[in-house]
Amino acid sequence: MEVNFSSYFLIDCMSMTRITADFDAPSQATFWELLTYIEEHEMSQKTPIFVEFKETNAGQTNVEMSVGVQ
Length: 70
Known about the structure:
Layout: E1 14-19, H1 24-40, E2 45-55, E3 61-69
Antiparallel strand pairs: 1-3, 2-3
């Protein structure tokens, strides 16, 4: 059974960071660094933090954390 799903939405402005190795250890610290960055730059958080596992064309896996800001 094949399932196809598409969802589209727009978030105008986002802050993002990427973890390229050893995801488990730095994930929590990176989460807090992203929130600290927002606060230090006087931004407002407008979305939950999105966590995406991605793979490059070379086969390297990384994690991107992003959050909508204003």
